[in-house]
Amino acid sequence: MHSNASPLSLTVLCPARRPATTLTRTPKSTVVTLAGDLDAADVPWLRRIVSGELGLRPATLLIDLTEVPFCSARVLKFLADQADDARGRGVGFAAVAPHRAVLRPLALLGLNRVLPVVHHLDEAALPARTRRRASRPLPARPETGTVP
């Protein structure tokens, strides 16, 4: 458990083709920060990281996709599955995604109903009622019918 753990920030260096990863653990949450493109080939590697952290049962596990310019449907599906697994373990789980590169595919695939999304790490500390509002899909633009 993380309750007695001291804050730790660890940068994991991955092979050149993998996105950069930073893992930050505190007594209240674990944040896995990813930077770079994420495609289907990254799912096994992500599974090891995310499943390992879920096994430690932090109060909250956040996957920060702020620096991810491309995220494949397979990766998004994997994260949605992990959110479901986290709920079963009593672990809070959310993706941090402030930009269209992640939000648009989530909405198109309908995964925004399964994978909680916050737009900033600060939102993850808000009460659950507020978080649910923040994780809803962005409304369509009336003039175009598209998500901003």
Structure, described:
This protein is of the alpha/beta class and 148 residues long. The chain is 32% helix and 22% strand. It contains four helices and six strands, in the order βββαβαβαβα. It has a six-stranded mixed sheet with strand order 1-2-3-4-5-6, sandwiched between helices. Strand 1 and strand 2 (20-25) form a beta hairpin. Helix 1 (43-55) packs parallel to helix 2.
With strands numbered from the N-terminus, the spatial order across the biggest sheet is: 1-2-3-4-5-6
Please estimate the helix content: 25-40%
Contiguous runs where pLDDT drops below 50 for at least 5 residues: 126-148
Q: Which secondary-structure class do the elements indicate?
A: alpha/beta
Mean pLDDT: 78
What is the straight-line distance between the termini?
Answer: 39 Å
Largest beta-sheet characterization:
6 strands, mixed
If you compute it from the alpha carbons, what radius of gyration comes out, rounded to the nearest whole angstrom?
Answer: 15 Å
Q: Strand portion, in percent?
A: 15-25%
Give the number of DSSP strands. 6
Secondary-structure element order, N to C: EEEHEHEHEH
Number of helix segments?
A: 4
Shape: globular
What does this entry show, briefly?
The chain has four helices and six strands, in the order βββαβαβαβα.
What's the layout of helices and strands?
Elements: E1 8-12, E2 20-25, E3 30-35, H1 43-55, E4 60-67, H2 73-89, E5 92-96, H3 100-109, E6 117-118, H4 128-135
Parallel strand pairs: 3-4, 4-5, 5-6
Antiparallel strand pairs: 1-2, 2-3
